[in-house]
């Protein structure tokens, strides 16, 4: 899991807006990956909550909401945003160099338990609580979901009568596009073959469902794109999200992952209140503010917290 446009924008303008937003998201980060706020031992200074984020603008927005909510309650926060993928930031969480991270339940569970059979949000959450390392814990999962999804253009859907992932089995010459690691993910090409009997080519596009992925789909360089479900580019470009009747994708709700050293009652109470208030519609709206309106993560988070009036 880790790195889009208001409804009604034309595709070409959508690509431009996303491109600008990706650049903005990188500039809006408060610090470089794993470069500040740590002691010489690599752990966070006592009493400081070190909030991390993926290299994905939507994840950074959630991390900024966590940070501002904690600060509003008198806690000291250091931001370490744009760290990258799980192979980079999970070891930092386990060591205590980073102490709090917004995660996505389904993909995180598959990272720790590649043989899981859980699919529903509740089953995934229960499995995840058991699967994380002993020094970590998951807090309350949000109703907000942002998960991998397979999308095609409306023209492709109409021309080939494709509405679900299963329908791809009757279309030859289909190429899937997504981050390079998708090639070996359980829901990538191997999972498409084993779960649905669908054979696809694969083109790696390492922009986390960003403007390059969108352009390749709109240009028909690829026919299927892995785009996160809360990405406003889906609606803005009239894409068709393929249904997944066999649950190739696990439910993936926003979930805070925290190092137990930082999981004080005050911290957990603040973050659980945030996650209880966050919705999928909020994610789509805030993602649009980032990509189309080019607002900073800090401003988006501040406005959301003011709207929900949690503290």
UniProtKB/TrEMBL annotation:
Q: Which Gene Ontology terms of cellular component type are present? A: ATP-binding cassette (ABC) transporter complex
Q: Where is the signal peptide?
A: 1-25
Keywords (alphabetical) are: Signal
- Entry superkingdom: Bacteria
Q: Record's Pfam families?
A: OpuAC
Q: Where does the ABC-type glycine betaine transport system substrate-binding domain lie?
A: 48-307
Query: Per UniProt, what is one GO molecular function of this protein?
Result: transmembrane transporter activity
The record, for CDD domains, names:
PBP2_ProX_like (cd13606)
| InterPro entries to which the protein is assigned, alphabetical | ABC_Gly_betaine_transp_sub-bd
Name of this protein: Glycine/betaine ABC transporter
Organism, by scientific name, is: Subtercola vilae
